[in-house]
Design goal:
Number of strands: 13
Strand order of the largest sheet: 3-9-8-7-6-4-5
Distance between the termini: 72 Å
Shape: globular
Radius of gyration: 26 Å
Order of helices and strands: HHHHHEEEHEHEHEHEEHEHHHEEHEEH
Number of helices: 15
Structural class: alpha/beta
């Protein structure tokens, strides 16, 4: 595209004039477009509270709103912004809304947005240290900072007081990727340990997780080549608050060994998606040690809470696991995508994932003194994700981040207390962190089936109002509503308003049931 002509006459918002060159990074256009985009973002955050959380649109609506064929000629940037406001925003589910209580939060902050914007503008591809030293070292630094906030042992650090450590981390897109790369590393280690020729021993490898483990684990197992018949989904129940029972795990693993299988990998979860159950990390690590199996801790959501000393006990025993991942894009004010993975021995990852084509060879990589993050992930190319995470920690500091977590937990406890004080409802599992699982309980002769239908109707009516958005799960065979506090704009008044709406809607539903 040639060199950038910096004379004023060369500046143009768009290049339709004959003889004018296409300059997609014209500095004046960059300034103008980004000013308009930032104004849009600021206005969006001011107004998102008043927008329906769930859109009232039908599948395919956007194709009817926007032209079907790509434009042949250029148009002012204002045209795109106008169509964004008119067609795209009305079809958005507003995860940023303070009235969003579904799934888990997708938090954000001014510092994260700024970091992501700058990283996108620089558009670096830091697959090796040499490809972008600052991007690699920023990611290493940010991961070590966060590891310290979590009080992870030094064995997970890229850098320790004694110099470069044996462990380290990498920022990936999602927990799915963290599971996949550690499964591959564990698979290869087990094959070597069992003396397998190539992958001939793969059908004998077995992996384990509780039935509450995120579904992405079972997908990652299939992608890593494990036989679906050897993927153990271990039942949980109310007696363990739906956490994995180490005794049951040990029994199943021993039976697999007796059957000629090789226990290879256990996924323990701190804060399951359905109910926020916490698997006992230390006890699971003890079981795994009997079989030399890899232990991975999925702390995607609840890991953020463990920067607060009062929640750190949920990671007790982490020094004996092989890897742990958590996602600051869920609850630590860092926009998507940002999943942090730490391993005790980086070589166990790089031995399975390293690529070394001639065109990427360089003195720094050959020296062994640097980290080439391409060798700790599935792909080669990678975004400058470390910048936004570093900006969040550098701007807000540990105290503000802890305050954010504690505020959300306090609001969730307030909601839980409200539910417990109303005899029409029950809290189905003990609240962990900032998620409350509740339901209308059967009473006055109501059957479980009718109660399930009442709860489903409650969720659907709440969501149709546009004033709140809740999701559901099934726990112990019961249809349960999930109330997840944590949206970045949420305040106590939003939680109170949602509770009033829940009470009002429930009264209407119960009256209809009585009439019927």
């Amino acid at each position: 595209m040639g060199s950038l002509d910096t004379t004023p006459a060369a500046f143009s918002a768009f290049g339709d004039d004959a003889g004018s060159s296409f300059q997609p990074l014209n500095p004046e256009d960059v300034r103008s477009y980004l000013h308009k985009a930032v104004d849009f973002i600021s206005d969006y955050y001011k107004s998102v509270e008043s927008l329906p959380v769930l859109p009232d649109v039908k599948p395919g609506y956007l194709q009817r709103e926007l032209q079907a064929a790509p434009p042949a000629s250029s148009a002012p940037f204002d045209v795109a912004m106008k169509e964004l406001r008119a067609a795209v925003v009305p079809g958005m589910t507003h995860w940023a809304s303070p009235n969003f209580f579904a799934f888990f939060p997708s938090t954000n902050s001014a510092a994260a947005i700024a970091g992501d914007l700058i990283a996108s503008a620089m558009n670096t591809v830091g697959f090796t240290w040499q490809a972008n030293p600052a991007a690699t070292e920023m990611e290493v630094l940010a991961l070590d900072w966060l590891a310290q906030l979590l009080r992870l042992p030094a064995s997970f650090m890229n850098r320790t007081a004694a110099g470069r450590g044996t462990g380290g981390g990498v920022i990936l897109g999602t927990t799915s990727e963290a599971m996949l790369v550690t499964l591959v590393a564990a698979r290869d280690a087990a094959l070597r340990r069992s003396g397998s020729e190539g992958v001939s021993g793969l059908p004998r490898l077995a992996v384990y997780a509780a039935d509450q483990t995120h579904s992405t684990f079972f997908k990652a197992c299939r992608l890593a080549g494990f036989d679906p018949a050897n993927i153990r989904s271990i039942p949980t129940g109310a007696e363990t608050d739906y956490a994995l029972d180490p005794a049951k795990l040990l029994e199943i693993m021993r039976a697999d060994v007796d059957a000629g299988l090789v226990p290879t990998y256990i996924c323990a979860t701190v804060g399951t998606t359905s109910s926020n159950a916490v698997d006992p990390v230390g006890a699971i690590a003890d079981v795994a040690a009997v079989f030399n199996a890899w232990v991975h801790v999925d702390a995607a959501y609840a890991g953020s809470a463990c920067i607060c000393p009062e929640f750190r006990h949920h990671l007790a025993g982490v020094e004996r696991v092989d890897s742990i991942s958590m996602s600051p894009h869920k609850w630590l004010m860092t926009c998507l995508d940002c999943t942090c993975l730490w391993v005790r021995d980086t070589h166990r990852l790089t031995d399975s994932l390293e690529t070394n084509p001639e065109y990427l060879k360089n003195d720094a990589s050959e020296s062994g003194t640097v980290t080439d993050l391409k060798d700790m992930q599935v792909g080669v190319g990678r975004r400058f994700r470390g910048l936004k995470l570093w900006m969040v920690m550098r701007t807000y500091g540990a105290a503000k981040l802890q305050e954010h977590i504690r505020s959300d937990v306090a609001m969730a406890k307030m909601f839980e207390d409200n539910v417990r004080s109303d005899d029409r409802f029950e809290v189905v599992v003990p609240r962990n962190f900032a998620l409350v699982c509740f339901r209308i309980k059967p009473r006055h002769g109501m059957t479980e089936e009718v109660a399930d239908e009442a709860n489903r109707e409650l969720m659907e009516r709440l969501n149709r109002t546009g004033k709140a958005y809740l999701a559901h799960t099934v726990v112990g065979g019961k249809f349960v509503l999930r109330f997840a506090v944590g949206s970045s704009l949420q305040e106590e008044r939003h939680v109170r308003s949602a509770w009033e709406l829940i009470k009002k809607t429930t009264a209407e539903i119960m009256e209809e049931i009585v009439v019927e």
